[in-house]
């Protein structure tokens, strides 16, 4: 026996001794009795006739070890040997034993003991296949019903009842649900419920401009890439590469930038500044009580409030922590520095609620101020005999100011009304009639606790 064979034999017997200890521990016997059983079986093989002995000698020692182990297992399971309680509990370790045994066999096979494979094919491989196939059948029988197995109408009703965060979570389940949860008709409802009061046509235009600004760099980048590729193809044309290069772009699973979901998430994140109007700007400063000014707003989801930037033409003012009830979408789609063309002047009569544009000077944007139409001085206020609606002159009254204040009353001509005023009293612009009772009640909710001077 050379040096390599001697080392290999030493390794095998060392591994066998480990398994001897393992068997003796699992089946509740001492090590010496187990070894005695092992050597008795070896002696039985050694006393066989010479016609059988060559076959026995060709068997690996490991095979004899397995034979002895299985024989000992059968003896230990016989009813002639009662088991103690702790010995019966050790049978629960059998899965651990088979895992250790399997790892030992793999190590032997890797080291060249391929003769064991033919021995293991029937008792190990075949039962393993049977076990796996039986587990697959049981898994198919016990498989739960998937959400996608529901009827189309039932699945649609479930998705419609999910919150925005629920739709985002559901979209991460699989590709099919991702496409469904991004549908515009699902997010349109959430957009109207949360943002309908503060989003108007101006905010939509801002969103479209935001989309265009996001698409422009990607388009320029794609054009630059294609220009570079075309220059390379002109030098070395490779037609089989061209389709792959030109089709490379944004991944198909990315969210479309012009979807309603993308708009909703941009508003929620506060990244999109959108135009809206703020009641009583600058935290109810006395100079802006009962007014509503245009501003650029950004949402803060942590506090559920808004930030506002006022007056892009003049000195910029920033206000923090604006609650929802102080915001509204612009009722008229007119830029803040443009005069509104009044179309309700001929219909106004005493008692009507109105908003009128006003600005301190012509360099500043307009704000909308709340007032009512009052009776002329020549009218006694009797509704049955009032003729104020037939007069060309209109009396605008702002009752938040004291009767002697210069801001209390303003007279305008309904026939040829344009911007009127001066540097001292400011400039009055277009008039809008308020017909909605809810809108009137919102204005009255901001009424000051004391009369202004």
TrEMBL record:
Gene3D superfamilies: 1.20.1280.50. Keywords: Membrane, Transmembrane, Transmembrane helix. It comes from the Eukaryota. The chain crosses the membrane at residues 25-48, 55-75. The keyword Ribosomal protein does not apply. The keyword Cell inner membrane does not apply. Residues 144-190 form the F-box domain. InterPro entries: F-box-like_dom_sf (IPR036047), F-box_dom (IPR001810). PANTHER family: ESTS AU081301(E20138). This is F-box domain-containing protein. The lineage of its organism: Eukaryota, Viridiplantae, Streptophyta, Embryophyta, Tracheophyta.
């Amino acid at each position: 026996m050379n040096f390599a064979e001697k080392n290999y034999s030493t390794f095998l017997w060392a591994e066998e001794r480990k398994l001897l200890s393992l068997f003796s521990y699992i089946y509740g016997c001492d090590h010496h009795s187990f070894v005695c059983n092992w050597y008795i079986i070896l002696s039985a093989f050694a006393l066989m006739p010479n016609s059988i002995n060559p076959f026995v000698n060709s068997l690996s020692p490991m095979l004899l070890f397995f034979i002895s182990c299985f024989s000992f297992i059968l003896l230990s399971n016989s009813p002639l040997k009662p088991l103690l309680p702790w010995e019966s509990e050790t049978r629960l370790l059998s899965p651990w034993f088979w895992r250790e045994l399997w790892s030992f066999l793999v190590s032997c096979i890797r080291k060249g003991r391929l003769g064991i494979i033919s021995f293991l094919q029937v008792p190990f491989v075949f039962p393993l296949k049977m076990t796996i196939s039986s587990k697959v059948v049981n898994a198919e029988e016990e498989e739960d019903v998937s959400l996608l197995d529901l009827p189309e109408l039932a699945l649609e009703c479930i998705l419609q009842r999910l919150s925005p965060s629920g739709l985002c979570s559901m979209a991460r389940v699989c590709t099919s649900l991702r496409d469904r949860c991004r549908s515009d008709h699902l997010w349109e409802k959430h957009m109207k419920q949360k943002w309908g009061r503060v989003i108007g046509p101006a905010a939509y235009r801002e969103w479209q401009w935001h989309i265009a600004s996001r698409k422009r760099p990607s388009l320029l980048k794609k054009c630059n890439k294609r220009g570079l590729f075309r220059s390379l193809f002109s030098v070395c044309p490779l037609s089989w590469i061209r389709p792959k290069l030109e089709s490379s772009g944004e991944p198909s699973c990315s969210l479309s930038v012009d979807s309603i979901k993308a708009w909703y998430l941009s508003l929620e994140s506060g990244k999109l500044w959108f135009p809206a109007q703020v009641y009583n700007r600058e935290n109810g400063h006395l100079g802006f009580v009962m007014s509503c000014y245009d501003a650029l707003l950004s949402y803060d989801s942590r506090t559920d409030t808004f930030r506002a930037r006022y007056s892009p033409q003049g000195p910029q003012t920033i206000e923090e922590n604006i609650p929802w009830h102080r915001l509204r979408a612009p009722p008229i789609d007119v830029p803040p520095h443009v005069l509104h063309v009044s179309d309700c002047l001929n219909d106004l009569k005493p008692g009507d609620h109105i908003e009128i544009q006003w600005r301190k000077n012509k360099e500043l944007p307009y704000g909308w101020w709340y007032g009512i139409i009052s009776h002329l001085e020549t009218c006694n206020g009797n509704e049955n005999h009032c003729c104020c609606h037939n007069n060309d002159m209109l009396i605008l009254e702002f009752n938040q100011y004291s009767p002697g204040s210069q801001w209390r009353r303003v007279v305008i001509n309904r026939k040829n009304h344009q911007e009127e005023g001066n540097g001292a009293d400011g400039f009055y612009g277009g008039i809008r009639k308020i017909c909605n009772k809810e809108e009137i009640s919102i204005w009255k909710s901001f009424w000051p606790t004391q009369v202004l001077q």
